[in-house]
Amino acid sequence: MERVQKYLNVILNSLKVLIPQRDRMQLDWRRFLGENITYSGWIMAWLAILTWITFSYTTGQLQSAPTGTIVVLMIWGLTVAMTMLAELQKRHTDWTLWMKGNLYNSITNVQVSLLLVLLILAAFRGFYSYAYTNASFADAVPPTEREYETTVEAVAEAGGPNLSRMPANLEFVSPTESITNRAGVVVRETAYILNEDKTVVTVENRDIHTGATWGAVIDNFSNLLIFRYKQPNLVWRVYAVLIFIAVFGVASTFMYRSERLRSSRLLSGVSLFWITSPIIIYQFLLGAGEGGAEAFFGRVSPDNTLGGFLFSVILALMAIVISFPLGVLLALGRRSEVRGIPWWITYPVAGLGMVYLLFTNTPTLLEGARSNFGILLAYWPILIPVVAYGFQRTWEGNVVAAFSTIFIEVWRGIPFITVLFMSIILFPIFLPEGWEVLNMTRVVAGSAMFSAAYLAENVRGGLQAIPRGQYEAADSLGLSNFTKYRLIILPQAIRLVIPAIVGQFIGLFKDTSLVYLVGLFDLLAVANTIASQPDWLGIRTEPYIFLLALYFVCSSAMAWYSRRLERQLGVGQR
Amino acid sequence: MAEAKTLKTTGDNVIVCNEVQKWYGNYHALRGVSMSVRSGEVIVILGPSGSGKSTFIRTLNRLEEHQGGDIIVDGITLSHDVRNIAEIRREVGMVFQQFNLFPHLTVLENITLAPIHVRKWSRERAEEVAMKWLTRVGIPEQADKYPGQLSGGQQQRVAIARTLTMEPKILLFDEPTSALDPEMIKEVLDVMRDLANSGYTILAVTHEMGFARTVADRIIFMDAGQIVEENTPDNFFHNPKEERTKKFLNQILNH
Ligand SMILES: Nc1ncnc2c1ncn2[C@@H]1O[C@H](COP(=O)(O)OP(=O)(O)O)[C@@H](O)[C@H]1O
Ligand SMILES: [Mg+2]
Question: Among A561, A417, A536, which residue's Cα sits nearest to residue A138?
Fold first, then answer.
């Protein structure tokens, strides 16, 4: 009620403003023109062009979509007039002030505001007619029905038109067989063609809609989401997981809110479970025991059953939960200040190693060398002291920092698609005979390492922002290094970089679609198979729109959750 | 009060420093500092800015490593041995100029964290002792707030309660009132005075001359990384031995 009253007041006030009060209206036209238009030739040219664009676009829209355009124009005209009057009389309401600041703060913006609203409206109208008005939601026409031959009598008997007097070879489109979509638009018709001697009728069922063919997505819905997991012995596992997540999710929300359970062991257990849940859920989906997909809970291989959205989600979540601890460790490792190996150990060891290899490895290499370059390569042990020198100079013998830094920089230096190619195509070549590692495992490992390297840099940024006093306070209280990092430093550092980390995880989730390029069956790969199904030949747009919506919803959900988390954890930081 | 006095005269040395040296790179920050502190003694360290006061008391609980000389705290010699360091830190509490409370934990969590994880007390016991100390420093009602919601004086009192809940024998204060607004200085000094009268061994770096004069058993004056003068408060302020002490007193008392 209060709101309505407020809005009414706003409108009434605006109307009051509309009534001219001459003594208050003070406009120096010459000054207005000088300040806004005529002060520069470029501005005048630009305004002329913009006005022309606005005018021609608006008149075009007035013809193609009169009602909407007129409404928009009226609202625009009214609000512009309100704002201008308020400005002239220096009597702004909240509304006019907002419009002045955000929509109409210059002649350019007055026009661009109108243009943008009309453009958005046109885009929306276009999408609406594509996705709804002219769309077909029908299942695929069974191939046998799509085009078949019958007789004139059979058509008449089945309730069709009487074709006996129709000329041969002429197409007759029957309205009685037409099918309309949800918007009432005819999307399918039946055509009858008589042959030369008028004995056989060819019947054709044709889709004639001009919009989207949602049947392709509807028909493949379970394919896109869970791929082979729609099999009876597998699908119940998916449902079980969903029900479990729902029930246990609600239960743990209550536990987290409970005052009594605050920082109890039970709650730590629940948190630990949620953190490791992607791996547990993955193992549950794969099942256990004999029989594979033929058995109720048989163990199946992820490589030929897991696919679609389920695959993408599991892959991303597993990569995330594995990369998180790894990334944190790498960040700590890169900053570690453990006592390094002293130079008087590194240099002699490197020297001896060089000499040893020069005497054992170089001669064999020299025998096999077929070019000057090969001969040069045979003396590679000479590089060992060089590397040792670099290691001492850069890291002062600190192995942990050296390893972390090199690991991070190497993984950050490789494009993600290369990581995938290496893990799927190159990696098996290096495996010993008879060893096999699942594709799924390899992709998860590759993605996790890749993600960990970036995460480490994010976390390191957070660590750097923690003041020295926090370390000193923890030290002076006698906390062990482990406790200090676990309870004081990391919680604060990670909180600082939550937005960056979630952004990175969103990126990882979207990037998993690249596995399509190395032949795994993620959401994108399944969507691409639709175009080669006989019923939906060549249909790609609709599945892609579905993908887009799905990825958008998931990514937005993650971003929303991160903002909420930030706010929750921000308690006391004010 | 009387009890505390007897402690001071008969107490053993709880801190012994012998020729302590400290370099920051090429900068010689401590140039052979020797002194000892008896149990229950209250010592105030004075000196111009940059003279090495903070550096010195931070070597006592190994926030800074010393490179020469010996430091023996509570009978334990400070060395690289991690166990010795941990043991000493359990007996030595420190209060900082910038409070250094943990901003992501409530006041109560700030205080109970170390007792639970270092002393291995139960949560109940830790909270009980924490509340006892919060009451003693006068802010029991702030237990569930976050540090960011408290005033500077209150934060420093929480920091003191956090240190004391660990039941240390020795307290180090590094300019505990320097970051406070004038009206909050008194509430912190009152707490410190109360502690001094309760028999704690205290080493305090401070610029509060009133506190030094009335509470200290001994004043140590440092300059350029060395101890220039050790004296009783009376003699130090009215009858200083060294020229440099006189100059320093002139500067701070006639500003
Ligand atoms: N971490 C450090 N690195 C380099 N020099 C330092 C560091 N800490 C202190 N110093 C130097 O050591 C000297 C003594 O500092 P400090 O003990 O903080 O003095 P005070 O507390 O008496 O003002 C100063 O000159 C200061 O610049
Ligand atoms: Mg200082």
Answer: A536
On whether both A324 and A358 belong to a single domain, the answer is no
Q: Using 50, 70 and 90 to split pLDDT, how confident is the model at A23?
A: very low
C-beta of residue A292 within 8 angstroms of C-beta of residue A250:
no
Quick one: A376 and A249 in the same domain?
A: no
Return residues with CB closer than 5 A to ligand 2 (ion): B 54
Q: Do A450 and A351 fall into the same domain? A: no
- C-beta B206 within 6 A of ligand 1: no
Mutate which of B80, B102, B158, B165 to disrupt the A interface (most A C-beta within 10 Å)?
Answer: B102
pLDDT value, residue A90: 80
The pTM of this model reads 0.82
CATH assignment at residue A489: 1.10.3720.10
* pLDDT value of residue A186: 77
Give yes or no: residues A316 and A463 share one domain. Answer: yes
- Of the ranges A171-175, A434-438, A453-457, which is most confident? A453-457
Whether the pLDDT of residue B3 is over 50: the answer is no
Q: Which residues of A153-187 are buried (b: 16+ CB within 10 A; e: fewer)?
A: eebeeeebbebeebeeeeeeeeeebebebeeebeb
**Res A284: pLDDT:** 94
Residues of A with CB under 8 A from a CB of B: 467, 469-470, 472-473, 475-480, 483, 487-488, 491-492, 495, 569, 571-574
Last residue of a domain, one of A71, A103, A133: A133
Asked if A479's CB is within 8 angstroms of B104's CB, the reply is: no
Same domain, yes or no, for A482 and A547?
Answer: yes
Same domain, A21 and A97: yes
Residue B7: pLDDT above 60?
no
Domain final residue pick, A133, A164, A186: A133
Q: Is the CB of B225 under 6 A from ligand 1?
A: no
- Report CA(A253)–ligand 1 centroid distance (Å): 50
| Ligand 1 pocket member B45 (CB < 6 A) | no
Residue-range definition of the domain harbouring residue A120 = 2-133
Q: In this structure, are residues B173 and B207 in contact, taking their beta carbons and an 8 Å threshold?
A: no
**Would you state the pLDDT for residue A573?**
54
Q: Atom 27 (ligand 1): residue with closest C-alpha?
A: B50
Q: Are residues A416 and A381 located together in one domain of the fold? A: no
Atom 16 in ligand 1: residue holding the nearest Cα: B52
For residue A228, being part of any structural domain is answered with no
Across B39-91, where does the E strand assignment appear?
42-46, 68-73, 76-77
Angle of helix A308-335 relative to helix A498-511, nearest 10 degrees, comes to 140
**pLDDT > 60? residue A571:** no
Query: Is A404 domain-assigned?
Result: yes
- The string of pLDDT tens digits covering residues A204-241 is 887 788 889 898 999 999 999 999 999 988 999 999 99
Please tell me the residue having the least CA distance from ligand 1 atom 13.
B50
Q: Which of B24, B206, B220 to mutate to test the pocket of ligand 1 (most atoms within 8 A of CB)?
A: B24
B15 SS3 class? strand
> How many domains does chain A fold into?
4
Residues A459 and A433 in one domain: yes
Chain B residue at shortest CA distance from A339 = B80
Residue A74 in domain: yes
Residue B91 pLDDT greater than 50, yes or no: yes
- Does A410 reside within a domain? yes
- Is residue B105 helix, strand or coil? coil
Provide the 10 A C-beta neighbour count for residue A387: 10
CATH code for the domain of A183: 3.30.70
CB of B82 closer than 6 A to ligand 1? no
- Which chain A residue has its CA at the smallest distance from B112's CA? A477
Q: Report pLDDT for B11.
A: 58
Q: Does the beta carbon of B50 lie inside 6 Å of ligand 1?
A: yes
CA B52–ligand 2 middle distance (angstroms): 7
Structural Rg of chain B based on CA atoms: 18
Contacts of A316 (CB under 8 A, 6+ apart): A447, A505, A508, A509, A512
Instruction: Using the predicted structure, report yes or no on whether residue A18 has a pLDDT greater than 60.
Output: no
**Ramachandran region, residue B75 (left: φ > 0; alpha: ψ -120 to 50; beta: rest):** left
Q: In this prediction, does ipTM exceed 0.90?
A: yes
